[in-house]
Amino acid sequence: MSAALALQKRVLSFWFQGYQQGQPISSVSFKHWFGGQKETDEYIRENFKRDRDALFEEGKYEAELSKTAQGTLSMIILLDQFSRNLYRNSPKSFEADPKSVTLANYVINSGMEKELQPIERIFLYLPFEHAEDLKLQDYAVQKYEELVDDCDENIRPVAVEFVSFANRHRVVIEKFGRFPHRNEVLGRASTASEIEYLNNGGENFSGSSQK
User: Fold this and answer.
1) Domain range enclosing 155
2) What are the C-alpha distances in Å from 74 to residues 5, 9, 58, 117, 153?
3) Within a domain: residue 112?
4) Does some domain include residue 204?
5) Phi-psi region of 36 (alpha: psi -120 to 50; beta: other; left: phi over 0)
6) pTM of the predicted model, to two decimals?
7) Closest CA to 172 of 197, 142, 151, 153
8) Measured between alpha carbons, how far is 211 from 158 in angstroms, rounded to an integer?
């Protein structure tokens, strides 16, 4: 097995550990993905940081992994999800977002999207939800709505939740054109309306890989 395929296997095995295909998604899985747990961050740092950085900075593994839907998904998880685990409260947590969008579009436009299971498609669409771009936010809502229609009854309630998550992100971008909660980390000056929004309980997606 090549180094690229071994990395794909490690990423997907770790990320989807404990999940049985076709079964309801448990709270344990949600905590693993979005709980902001220190032990999860540390595991990713110890086992995937070098690979994530090599992929982002050098394009290492991309030629081989982009041949398949699951290979490309493993790159999206490395860049879109693991960046947030590795670089919390740092601008680097968002630096790979444009590349993640490119990879997600590649899977969809190449016709490989439906090769992925519903649980995998949840993470295929997250780069659109993370984007500070209203058209991509609209696309995120659209793709999660399609997922609701495509999945079986065991997964559908979670897919519906992701439609809600996507809409919550979209509302913020529609209002501000960006995520105000990122301003401090990115060194951006907040407007008066953004400060008021955050001070009055506005969305900050705190402790979540959906930031």
Assistant:
1) 3-12+27-199
2) 10, 8, 16, 13, 26
3) yes
4) no
5) left
6) 0.93
7) 197
8) 18
